[in-house]
Amino acid sequence: MTSDENYSIFRECLSSAIVARSEKPKTKRRTKVKRGGRKESTVTSSEVVHTERANPEELAEFIDFIASETFTSFPEDLRTLSYAGIQHDPNLSNTYIPVEKDAPLDRSVLDSICTITPVDVTETLSVYGLIPETTDFPDFISPVLSEYISSVTSGPPEWSATRADACEICERDWIPLSYHHLIPRGVHAKVIKKGWHDEWMLNSVAWLCRACHSFVHRMASNEELAREWFTVERIMERADVQDWAKWVSRVRWKAR
What we know:
This is HNH domain-containing protein. By secondary structure, the chain is mostly helical. About 50% of the residues lie in helices and about 10% in strands. Strands 1-4 form a two-stranded antiparallel ribbon. A two-stranded antiparallel sheet has the order 2-3. The protein has a two-stranded antiparallel sheet with strand order 5-6. A hairpin with a 5-residue loop joins strand 2 and strand 3. The radius of gyration is 21 Å and the shape is globular. The two termini are about 15 Å apart.
């Protein structure tokens, strides 16, 4: 992968995190009138009616700024990290690949990256309420880096022949895609034991941008995804997914 390709992937990983933190649920409050004419406002979880979302064009510019400033501050070996690279350089693997699967990036490596991140990045994230304080930046960027590193160092998937030209939810065709297991791997054993699906269906995938990929995992548990939402067609029947797809398809940034 080239540095530009890696940047595109990093920007998508970062975009997913920023989009998730930018959504603010709005609720409908019900007013009760008690004896004596005093009013009391109450709200229950069932009364959450919709999510307030930022202007897509402005959000895209914001994401592009944060991604560019952050990525260009990375060490060169992190900006150009690849599957081939870690196969030929054990030091790269020792530095960036956790010993245990799905473990976070080594704290000393994370701290060294955060130390050289421009102050403008951490202060901007804090000012816009995406992190409580600038000192919380490591906790914010850690899962983003883990997703980025996992993506650029993954070998070619066996499902590459199924790759789509555009995200199968939002239909954006100009950003990197990742493959989503329609039947999550974590519940494969249970799926077979319960007889929910035939074994040959276990490796069915959908090609999604990272924002849509994260949205799908937020909308339902792995078990619910396996039982109810195991095809793109079923997922797209949901009103919340249709609303999300319409909104996120408008989040665009300028070419780098």
